[in-house]
Predict the structure.
Amino acid sequence: MRILSFLLLIIFLANACQPAQPATNALKSYFSSPDTGVLTGGVRLIPIQTPKGSFKVWTKRFGNNPTTKVLLLHGGPACTHEYFESFESFLPQEGIEFIYYDQLGSAFSDQPKDTSLWDLSRFVEEVEQVRVALGLNKDNFYLLGHSWGGILAMQYALKYQDNIKGLIISNMMASCPKYGQYADSVLGKQMDPVVLKTIQDLEAKKDFANPQYMGLLTPNFYEKHILRRPSAQWPDAVNRNFSRVNQEIYVTMQGPSEFGISGKLEKWDVSAELKNIKTRTLVIGATHDSMDPAYMAWMAKQFPNGQFLLCPDGSHMSMWDDQTHYFPGLVAFLKG
């Protein structure tokens, strides 16, 4: 009997261990590299062609999933991929592949000085070239654009939606004029009138380099609507991102002011065209966002196959200040 009991125990333990095998195989598959030759940790410098010649942009693949590949379009314009580093704490455990990408002029990518390159339509063609080089297609390609990246993602989808499996617009409105109205009528009125007047006076003088300008904006705007933490506690990835912003591109396209947009994008508005984007789409907004959450909820309804995710405790960078809602909602969409 002892021998029989011992054998039954071995069989039970062997069967109990069986479910672990698929998980181990999935982990191996996720971290296996499809690259050949010298392995680079997923980094690729992709050549792109522009009207002003050939340049290279930096990308880095994290993980490997043949059916779910998320290309991340950072904000700015001309911020960096670095503030997406929080994704590493959430997407790998779900088996979701994602790809960092510094747009031309940003961080690790080439930084030409020709200002004619800083044009929305050219950036759209850049994204298309990156997609082709990475082998992304309608069976696996999810495009996530945050802030300015959301503008770029919407514009890309209007031309190339047949290449996309899913679209995520994170913390961005479909109308720059509407954003300007929200900044003036809502965000500005939430400030101390004396502080707002001082900021407006500095902007009227174009005295953006005055230390008082950012000294007032940081506690009264950034810590309330960009990332809801004291700036001294902002994550290293966020600080690295802000330290690398290419101001030439930022000012050319966004303008120097944080209240509304005054650069090349000032009149950009595709709100009436959202109905033409048939791709399954997720719009992410936040209660304390610098973008109007009510407008973003409305946006989601304009997409024929759209849905809305609200981050109630978050602001513009809700992948940092409301991870509890941001990532479960994003993962659910990617796996839906």
Q: What stands out?
A: The chain has two domains: 43-177+270-335, 179-244.
